[in-house]
Amino acid sequence: ASDVYKRQCGWFILCRYSAKEIVLFCCILTLKKSTTISRAYYKISEVVERLALKLDLSHKVIDVGAAPGGWTLYLSQYVGEVVAIDPGDLKIEIKPNIKYLKMKAEDALSHLIIGSYDILVPSILL
């Protein structure tokens, strides 16, 4: 089952898979001036707020398509671990709870323990 929401930041879809949630985004750019690394920081913030997602230090998150780091930066403030995957450069400070895999997602699979993550936030081109 999935729910589709429209907010000022754009469209996003919440899909429930088993007991875990996977959030898929198709964002429409806004004209809001950003004071962080990217407007993505505000977009993920609004998704978490709008869906009332309960993030805590026990959560482990995979951020696929992480560069330049807006989602990773936001999530790292609220969860125990963020694995940021992207062949591009992150333009944020790599905190102790951020693991940065500078590679394509398909190459990162061997570096992950499948089934041990709670949330996947993909921002990739297909």
Question: Quick gist of this model?
Answer:
With 126 residues, the protein is α/β, with parallel strands linked by helices. Helices cover 17% and strands 32% of the residues.
Your description of this structure?
- The protein is an alpha/beta fold.
- Helix content is 17%, strand content 32%.
- The chain contains three helices and seven strands; from the N terminus they run E-E-E-H-E-H-E-E-H-E.
- The chain has a seven-stranded mixed beta sheet with strand order 1-2-3-7-4-5-6.
- Strand 2 and strand 3 form a beta hairpin.
- The N terminus is likely disordered.
Which key features would you list for this structure?
single chain, 126 residues, alpha/beta, seven-stranded mixed β-sheet, 3 helices, 17% helix, globular, disordered N terminus
Q: How are the SSEs placed, and which strands pair?
A:
Elements: E1 2-7, E2 10-17, E3 20-27, H1 40-50, E4 60-64, H2 70-76, E5 81-85, E6 98-101, H3 105-108, E7 119-122
Parallel strand pairs: 3-7, 4-5, 4-7, 5-6
Antiparallel strand pairs: 1-2, 2-3
Helix pairs in contact: 1-2
